# Entry
Amino acid sequence: MYLRSIGQQKWQVRFFTIWIGQAFSMVGSALVRFALIWWLTKKTDSATVLTTSSLVATLPFILLAPFAGTFVDRWDRRWTMIISDAMIALATAYLAYLFWMDVARIWHVYLVLFLRSVGDTFQTPAMRASTSLMVPDDQLARVGGMNESLMGLVNIVSPPLGALLLEILDMQGTLAIDIVTAVMAIAPLMFISIPQLAPREPSGKRGAVLREFAEGFRYVWNWRGLFFMFVVLAGLRFFLAPSFSLLPLMVTRYFGGQVLQLAWTNSAHGFGFVAGGFILSVWGGFKRRTVTALLGLVGVGVGMVVFGLTPASLFWFALIVMFLRTMMVPMLRGSVMAIFQTYVPPEMQGRGFTLLLSAISVMAPLGLAIGGPIADALGVRVLYILAGVGCLAIAVVWALSPAIMHLEERVKQQKIAQH
# Structure
């Protein structure tokens, strides 16, 4: 049981006030990532350093996410978000001070990237789980589409804005922007309540957190449709992670482009997210959200194959393909998140979401480890073709799995049977 203290007529004002604050925080975080990666690139010109920074930022999601979800389900989610955002802001403030004193080193950047990622490991599932408590079930897919559009806008805006701020404000000034946006995210949470889960009986026994983590894992394992969906999404991450990371090489090695062409490709990627998210937020998807997700999955796979097969002389066509391919991603992710938020009980959502996050995060470095040598040996475009074929194979598994395709109907039937 969970407590909904927000009326149906008031949810928009309360939810979107919080959502807008979080949106500003996302922009600030994106500016920090851009600024720090640019600083590492200029200072070291080392692929190893950049790879290490990505690994440092990924580790908390792999190691802490399942346990973070257990705590998110136990704690007040509003205060979890407040403390997480504050922790991220303090870490950024510390690094800004080091740059102001001109004593910042590479390991300082690694440390702050790690601490920010720890904060995100708690903040993200807390916000996702809170969304299902504030938004009516029939609006979750549209909100998911809006989230995808927001991510696209952030991808479009943050690189040029970050570059401009670095020229005007220098590094410490750019980092200070993130502190301001964090305050904008925290402020609404201080005054707006979020519906809370019914209080648990205090355990006080040693191992309670581990037992609740195991409970969350058993919940996912025993619900075959949800478990298979997790496996499929983890496999998708395995194929897609190398393609996102090696996009600069595809632009330079195959299409013969430079920085401007890479910027155009990133813009096409961002605009695709915005368009796909907008379509999903207006349309809402098919009645069966698993079908909408399957449509997105097929679209991503076809787009990857066509992008890899595009002749090097048709860069303009590659931009169109990139836009259309990325437009399908919100169809997949937004629908999956709506399914998750609708049918997973609120008291399980923190643990369930972070289990999914961990499964996906683990597959990213594995895909990179295999995809890199393939790209060096066979060419980057071959990697995109193989990744597209892999996505289409996953789409076939999705379509042929009754546990996934009929997940929603079975949950509804179980609820009817219980009543």
Notes: The chain has a mean pLDDT of 79. Residues 202 and 370 are 46 Å apart (CA to CA). Residues 140-191 form the longest helix (52 residues). The chain has one domain: 11-198+205-418.
